[in-house]
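Thread: Newbie trying to understand structure tokens

Hi all, I'm a second-year student working on a class project, and my supervisor (Dr. K.) asked me to get a predicted structure for one chain before our next meeting. I've only ever worked with sequences, so writing a 3D structure as a token string is new to me. If someone could post the tokens and maybe explain what I'm looking at, I'd be very grateful. Here's the chain:
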Amino acid sequence: MHSFEEIKVTLLNWVPRLIIFILVVYIGFLLVSWLMKVLERHLRSKKLNLTALGFFMSILNFFLKLLVVVVGLGILDVPMASISAVVGAATLSIGLALQGSLSNLAGGLVLVTTEPFKLGDFISTEGYEGTVEEIAILTTKLRTLDGKRVIIPNSLVSSSSIVNYSVYDLRRKDIDLVISYEADIELVKRTLLEATKKIEAIQNPEVFLRGYGEQGFEFTLRIWLPRASLLKDSNALNELIKPALDQAKINLAYPHLDIEIVGGFNEEIH
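---
Reply by user tm_fold:
Sure, no problem. This is what the structure looks like when written as tokens:
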């Protein structure tokens, strides 16, 4: 058994080193965070690819903090050979245990190199729609229209179909209408096209008669709008259509049932 004096000497040797290790790691992490902020601010001013920048900054942040820990272990007088062996064994073990995370890392590399979208783009993938806020080491973060954050593993995003709504300046909007069979087809077309002229941003408006439904003529009003004003201007057009049709005495079709009574009401009802 170790004598009390031996334990005391061991504690006196290791406690100061342990305290220094903790201080080095703490201060080192603070310096890394400060350095990352300064570096990111500087690189953003260079107008670099922000999507790739965020991804590689996450990787750099990880390895710098890992370096701080290694330096701290050196202060504890842990031999570098031992540190290398431990890091190697840990890397192998973690790699085997976190194969999914490695696939997410690979997926992130695919996303920043092929660039199917960039920060700020509005996309749809894996059943979610939202604005791309960040492509991190392992995940992609979206902000949905109703203010929620969606975090999707990079491996899923990189291997799934992606719809990017922000690539082109113009977006198409189709408005479907069912008009009463009593209406004149050409008058309907003219009325709808006249309504589109009241919104300057609308481009290339077209009206199609898609078919004949159970309730009436099935029309589609097709317009093109700048991406930035799509929701606002398409909503404004929806509000203009009904008054325009009313003014032209054109009725929207609605579900109804015609009942024909054969023979009238000749019999007395008791």
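A couple of things are worth pointing out once you decode it. The first strand starts at residue 122 and ends at 125. The two ends are 113 Å apart (CA to CA). Feel free to ask follow-ups in this thread.
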